[in-house]
Amino acid sequence: MNYVLGAKCVKCGREYPAGPRLTTCSCGGILDLQYDYAAIARDFSPRDLEDCRDFSMWRYRPFLPVEEASPAPPLRVGWSPLYRAQRLADELGLKSLYLKDDGQNPTASLKDRASALAVVKAREAGARTIACSSTGNAASSLAGNAAAAGFETYIFVPSRAPKGKVAQLMIFGAHVISVDGSYEDTFELSKAAIQRYGWYNRNAAINPFLSEGKKTVSLEIAEQLNWQIPDYVALSVGDGCTIAGVWKGFKDLYAAGFIHKLPRLISVQAQGCCPLNRALQSGQAWSPMAEDTLADSIAVGVPRNPDKALQAVRESGGLAVNVSDGEILAAMGLIGRTQGVFGEPAGVTGTAGVKKALESGLISPQSSVVSIVTGNGLKDVANGIKAAGEPMQVKPCMEELLAAFRRCGLHP
Ligand SMILES: *Cc1c(COP(=O)(O)O)cnc(C)c1O
Ligand SMILES: [Zn+2]
Questions:
Q1: pTM for the structure as a whole
Q2: Which has the closest alpha carbon to 251: 275, 270, 233?
Q3: Closest to 124 measured CA to CA, from 174, 198, 54, 65
Q4: Degrees, nearest 5: CA angle 302-247-94
């Protein structure tokens, strides 16, 4: 059974039936899916999950807005590992830290959770073609998930998108439109094309089902921690859909009685592009900013989901932390070195924010924190090399090797 009651506008409160082609409210506001939590609590409990053999995001079907008859799409999305990151915690001087490595999804980012849901809803809508615009990961995840499910895709990316992500798009057989402009320009062009051709719309914030997919990351974190909720959950923020989805996931569990505490959110943005954090810090309305950061996935000057994102952080009693590109690169190296996890720049930005929040006394060293690594570093090797440097170069001879060790101060 499906527990969805309908969808409600976060701006004006107007309610809509949850048809698969649902987009935004007539007032322009973003819609939020509503569930019958009492019924979920009656039919579903943590006990049911103990016996569940489905190690993917679909193990939480009662919390998802899909028809009972809809099969899960082919790629395995979700159930990414939650690592206890003690070495990193020790280095940061933090009591308890976990890394949720969402770079281990099939196309290597958290966006797969949204794209998997989009593919199911596109099928329910009878669509054959799906389109979106994206800074890169929404694009590659849609391309992969749609390819596996047999859809055609039209995908708009800004020309700055890293090569790894563009290579994924081409390999997954998408029709790729590389737009010589900002993410904002790219989004507007895709919007006009979607309207013209009637494609199924997987654009961030426009399609309210996407954050329902993203929220599964929180359902997993809660289950993987045996329903003991950490003090903070930290993640990077661009459009704001991910953090809104993360909050929705915890609130859903709370409403259905699976958990009895809610975490505080740490919204981390790049100093050079932090329109949402600036609004949180100043208490004023958000306004556009330049897209000046190497963390391409969160270089979003005009966020598409500001209301839900700001509401999520505020409701959680959360924090806003801005980090420099240097701090992002340092976090890439730190997480790699201490935990063996390779995140792309936006993937490690949450952890860079945790470090900064600790250093500036915003959070106590006694806190428990989950930091979400939202995307894999192999998507953007240029920045990986920038973060970690080049290897030592030697001729194939022992003398050279010894000389190189001396030069680097190594004593093997
Ligand atoms: C999209 C993305 C984000 C931010 O998500 P928003 O919904 O745009 O706020 C963070 N990290 C990575 C790797 C992403 O791809
Ligand atoms: Zn409205």
A1: 0.96
A2: 233
A3: 65
A4: 100
